[in-house]
Design a protein that fits this description.
The complex is a heterodimer of chains A (about 425) and B (about 220). Chain A has about 425 residues and is an alpha+beta fold. Chain A folds into four domains: about 10-170, Alpha-Beta Plaits (2-Layer Sandwich); about 180-275, Dna Ligase, domain 1, CATH 3.30.1490; about 280-290 and about 300-340, no CATH class; about 355-430, no CATH class. Chain A contains 13 helices and 19 strands. Chain A has helices spanning about 15-20, 25-35, 65-75, 90-100, 110-115, 125-135, 140, 145-155, 155-160, 190-210, 245-255, 290-305, 330-335; strands at about 10-15, 40-45, 50, 80-85, 100-105, 170-175, 180-190, 215-225, 230-240, 265-275, 310-315, 325-330, 355-360, 365, 370-375, 380-395, 400-410, 415-420, 425-430. A seven-stranded antiparallel beta sheet of chain A has the order 13-19-18-17-16-15-14, with no helix packed on it. A six-stranded mixed beta sheet of chain A has the order 5-4-1-3-2-6. In chain A, strands 7-10-8-9 form a four-stranded antiparallel beta sheet, with helices on one face. The longest helix of chain A is centred in the middle third of the chain and has 21 residues, at about 190-210. Chain A is rod-shaped. Chain A starts with 9 loop residues before the first strand and ends with a strand. Chain B is α/β, with parallel strands linked by helices. Chain B is about 35% helix and about 20% strand. Chain B has helices spanning about 1-15, 20-25, 40-45, 65-80, 100, 115-125, 140-145, 150-160, 195-200; strands spanning about 30-35, 50, 55, 85, 105-110, 130-135, 165-170, 180-185, 205-210, 215-220. In chain B, strands 5-4-6-7-3-8-9-10 form an eight-stranded mixed beta sheet, with helices on both faces. A two-stranded antiparallel sheet of chain B has the order 1-2. In chain B, a hairpin with a 2-residue loop joins strand 9 and strand 10 (about 215-220). In chain B, helix 6 runs parallel beside helix 8 (about 150-160). Chain B is globular. The N and C termini of chain B lie far apart (about 40 Å). The chains are: A alpha+beta (about 425), B alpha/beta (about 220). At the A-B interface, helix 12, strand 11, strand 13, strand 16 and strand 17 of A face helix 4, helix 5, strand 5, helix 6 and helix 9 of B.
């Protein structure tokens, strides 16, 4: 036997409640848990998952500990589980059904000697014949011998005989990479409190499932099915991937506090895309956020308070047109300012302008091509000094072309304003401060 | 208010070994956030105090408060920290700052003073920002008069739980919980529009009207 070869190369995880109720929607939870212990899995039936353990070197005394780890893990996410370990998949499955909660078949003859024939998988007609012969255990059936069984009971009974000693190839499956929880509501949800109550349970469940596979949530997809037939969907990208329940819950809660749906909620699906826990070495010139998730939540709260385009980092537009910029949220929320923007800031503007948005319309009296009198909603009176005009224009090549004339003026009471004349209309654009 | 004092006294008598919250807060040594402006740093003893409210009163027209905010944003960029600007009346002009410094700015554009206070409440709960500035200079007096003293004390409590330097720019003294109050006494003229920014700082005049809560002093720099 090569080193590392397992004497017990098959394990079967058996969930009694699922086996009775049929294949549940949450079967993937079982597969994902089993996948932590073996990459070669078979979905054998409702509540039954077979693991190929070839190559797994577990010392004789440690099998129980090994199984206990799986049982504990499953107890948190799917409920009570039983595990059987044996040298063939069929024997392991029988052991799992008999386990309390773990059974390892070290001596096959001893195990089969007391195993009822009804559990071995015979058809009804063969079972009737065996019962009429007085054969009630698998051990007694095997004692008949292969040739005599073939002669008297046919091919099906021979296959049943061979199951005791022969293995079979597993029909391998790969567990889905998305972790999802779904629920249909008989009584439709109309309040946020009810929805948050269910969501919290979902998040706790997803966090446990992610913990099983040593992963964190990189993205969360929320889908609310509405009674009207429509659906509300939202993808949350987690800035610093985590499986912390409080963090993930706050992220959803902050968003949902500002969501209004047209109809009550009749179904809920929450899916987490797993990611590896972040181990990121920050660059010398990068600004790291202490808590990116908290910052993301802060931005969401501010956006909810003020509305879109009111919170973020201004990015100046590539134009000479004054007050042209866009608001961006991604740069800061991603946790670090780009190293490409570390170039020296050489701007050396003089006074700071406080802009009026929108500019105040004004009446301006001009003498000898200079403004001398200002009339606006905040100030009316003579202009003591004026600097200008500063003429600006742009986009002459298309319909968006613009042209303006700026004057920096000081009023008689000492305030410094910027006046703008555009299309023969004067306005006060801001005050210097 | 007297009920609070009675309650504090009762708690102090019942739990003599447990320090009061105010004592715990006072025991913290918050440190400073250097502004990069030598005159101002010298006046403040190193910079804007962290975990405290600093009120900058910019009473006169064109006193230079916008210029000062711009300088602080550049300083935040230089020391590689994120800064938050809560703009009380959406009057900030980003084009004067330059894109590099803007990349480290969280600009919160409010329409009213009430919105700005709510935004400050949210932002001070976040511990990612080195500097938070609340600019109420342009808000109408009617809005500012509606701000209760309790709102400032709430912001003070929030600031004390972080290591953020919190600067409030107001047109008149209105933050009773401010640890430090600076009065900007400069008066810029039209000739200054043509000058370089660096040449303006020597003419700036600050007066410190309050060194700590309940203690008035009148140091000046400029």
């Amino acid at each position: 036997m090569p080193p590392g070869e397992c004497l017990m190369p098959y394990a079967v995880i058996y969930i009694p409640e699922w086996a009775k109720a049929g294949q549940p929607a949450a079967a993937e939870t079982l597969w994902q848990c089993a996948y932590c212990f073996s990459p070669r899995l078979e979905d054998t039936g409702p509540g039954v998952c077979t693991l190929d353990l070839k190559g797994l070197a577990v010392p004789e005394a440690d099998w129980e500990k090994w199984a206990a780890k799986i049982i504990d893990m499953l107890a948190q996410v799917v409920g009570r589980a039983q595990i059987g370990v044996a040298r063939t998949p069929h024997l392991a499955a029988q052991a799992a059904r008999q386990a309390h909660p773990f059974l390892r078949v070290a001596n096959v003859e001893e195990f089969l000697a007391d195993l009822p024939v009804a559990q071995w998988g015979f058809g009804e007609d063969i079972l009737e014949i065996l019962e009429s012969w007085g054969i009630r255990t698998v051990g007694a059936f095997l004692a008949l011998g292969r040739d005599k069984i073939a002669e008297r009971l046919g091919v099906e009974a021979v296959e049943m005989f061979d199951l005791a000693g022969q293995s079979r190839p597993l029909k391998l499956i790969t567990p889905p990479e998305t972790f999802a929880e779904t629920m249909e509501f008989e009584t439709h949800l109309e309040s946020l409190e009810s929805l948050l109550f269910v969501l919290r349970r979902f998040i706790e469940q997803l966090a446990r499932r992610l913990e099983m596979v040593y992963r964190v949530a990189g993205e969360i997809h929320l889908r609310l099915g509405l009674a009207s037939g429509a659906a509300y969907e939202r993808l949350f990208v987690i800035p610093a991937p985590t499986r912390d329940v409080e963090t993930l819950f706050r992220l959803l809660q902050t968003h949902l506090e500002n969501v209004r749906t047209d109809a009550p909620i009749c179904s809920l699906r929450l899916a987490a895309k797993p990611a590896r826990a972040g181990t990121y070495q920050f660059g010398l010139f990068e600004v790291a956020l202490r808590d990116p998730n908290q910052f993301h939540e802060t931005l969401a709260r501010l956006t909810a308070l003020l509305g879109p385009n009111r919170v973020g980092t201004p990015r100046l537009a590539d134009t000479h047109r004054p007050d042209s910029f866009t608001m961006e949220l991604d740069g800061l929320a991603n946790g670090a300012a780009s190293a490409q923007e570390e170039e020296e800031d050489k701007t050396s503007h003089s006074l700071g302008l406080r802009r009026f948005r929108p500019p105040w319309l004004a009446r301006v009296e001009v003498r000898e091509a200079r403004p001398v009198l200002l009339g606006s909603s905040s100030f009316s009176g003579p202009i003591a000094h004026a600097l200008g005009p500063w003429r600006l224009s742009g986009q002459w090549w298309d319909a968006q072309n613009w042209e303006r004339e700026e004057w920096d003026v000081q009023t008689s009471d000492g305030e410094l304003f910027r006046l703008v004349r555009q299309n023969e209309q004067w306005s006060v654009e801001g005050v210097f401060d | 208010m007297s009920e609070i004092f009675q309650l504090r006294q009762l708690l102090a008598e019942r739990f003599p070994g447990v320090p009061a919250w105010s004592e715990v807060a006072a025991a913290k040594i918050p440190g400073c956030w250097p502004t990069g402006l030598p005159a101002l740093d010298a006046l403040l003893g190193g910079g804007l105090p962290k975990s405290r409210i600093t009120e900058l009163v910019s009473a006169g027209p064109s006193a230079g408060s916008a210029l000062l905010l711009r300088a602080l944003l550049r300083q935040a960029w230089k020391v590689r920290q994120l800064a938050g600007l809560i703009d009380g009346l959406d009057s900030f002009d980003p084009s004067a700052v330059g894109q590099p410094a803007l990349s480290r700015l969280l600009w919160v554009r409010c329409q009213t003073a009430q919105e700005a206070l709510k935004a400050a409440d949210i932002l001070l709960r976040d511990r990612n920002l080195g500097l938070v500035m609340l600019d109420l200079k342009m808000n109408p007096a009617a809005q500012l008069r509606k701000i209760s003293g309790a709102a400032w004390y709430r912001l003070q409590r929030l600031a004390q739980q972080t290591s953020t330097a919190f600067l409030v720019v107001t047109p008149w003294p209105m933050a009773p919980s401010a640890e430090t109050r600076l009065i900007l006494q400069s008066r810029l003229t039209l000739e200054d529009v043509l000058k370089k920014e660096d040449s303006l700082w020597p003419h700036f005049k600050f007066e410190q009207a309050r060194a700590s809560a309940g203690e008035e002093s009148a140091d000046a720099a400029g």
